[in-house]
Amino acid sequence: MADQDVNPFGDPKDVNPFADPDIKSATADTQKGLDDYNPFAEHATRGTTAPAHNVNPPPVYTQPATIEPTRAEVPPEYTSYTPNQVTERDEVIKRQEELERKADELARKENELRALQQRGSPENNFPPLPAKFCCKPCFYHDISVDIPVEYQRLCRMMYYLWQFYSLALLFNMISSLALLCVGGENGAQTFGVSLLYLFLFVPCSFLFWYRPVYQALKNDSSFNFMLYFFVFFFQIIFAIVYAVGIPGFGTSGWINGAKTLDKHSKVVAVMMFVSGALFTVISLLSIFLLRKVHYIYRTTGASLEKAQGEFARGVVTNKNVQNAAAEAVKGSMQAQTRY
């Protein structure tokens, strides 16, 4: 090359890299070739067009394109419920459950009654006394068997009230005994009367107001309803008197408790206050249950006329009354034949 003898350590000068004759000739030939090249010259001399590439033409659609909807799971129809509809539906479900429960209870009761009929009359089981005791039970008492399903709850409440009343009488006797021990005013009289009330009113309350309401709810008996109302009214008055604690009446209620607190032991006074509170609760519960029984009495169609009819039929069908009447007629006939 022409510039091979140039001293690289000499003074710098402008060197054109394209000044080399070889580079000039190479670039001149390349430029000439690019300028003279005509891609259409060959086809023009032949008089034919360039063959087209073998490419499939795109399809021609004569109908408008349609988009198929995507298939998705259709959600269940939504049903709107108003609050009233929801409440009515809940009530219907509750009634159905209640009816099913009553049907099961009635079926069980019928099976028990059928079993009792096959065995004969049921054995007495109340009061629950030991088998080797000298006395035997006097009554048959089973609320789940004798009482209809709709009245069982009320009957159990009456039974619990009788038990509560018996315990209150026992606690009143213990409080009166404590008053006697501390030398309280009328202590001996209060204790004696409270002891008499305990042994008298516990069985009498069972016979004259709990047993009648039990039979009334069992047999829909107007006579037993009337007997219960009559006796239970005095029962409520008696419980109020016991709660007040009038001196000399065998009661250790509020008044006797206040007197004992002023003059005697505070412990005995507290016991008397507790006794008064027990009889106060008994009075309120008695009034509440009396209203409940009276409501059932009105809904069952019981009346005084029915009670009189039941009493008359009971007297006529009573074997003791029939025997007494037969003996009376027989005696009168014998007296007439003598004369």
Explained architecture:
With 339 residues, this protein is mostly helical. It has a domain at 149-303. It is 68% helix and 0% strand. It has eleven helices and no strands. α5 packs antiparallel against α9 (266-299), α6 (187-219) runs antiparallel to α7 (222-244) and α7 packs across α10 (304-317). The longest helix is centred in the first third of the chain and has 37 residues, at 83-119. It is flat. The termini are far apart. The model is unreliable at 43-50 (pLDDT under 50).
Topology:
Elements: H1 21-36, H2 41-46, H3 83-119, H4 143-146, H5 149-181, H6 187-219, H7 222-244, H8 254-263, H9 266-299, H10 304-317, H11 319-338
Helix pairs in contact: 5-6, 5-9, 6-7, 7-9, 7-10, 8-9
Residue stretches low in confidence (pLDDT < 50, at least 5 long) are 43-50
User: What do the pLDDT scores average to?
Assistant: 74
Tell me the Rg in angstroms.
56 Å
Strand content: under 5%
Largest sheet descriptor: none
Sketch the topology as an H/E string, one letter per element.
HHHHHHHHHHH
Distance between the termini: 191 Å
Shape: flat
Percentage of helical residues?
A: 55-70%
| Number of extended strands | 0
Which structural class do the helices and strands define?
Answer: mainly alpha
Number of helices: 11
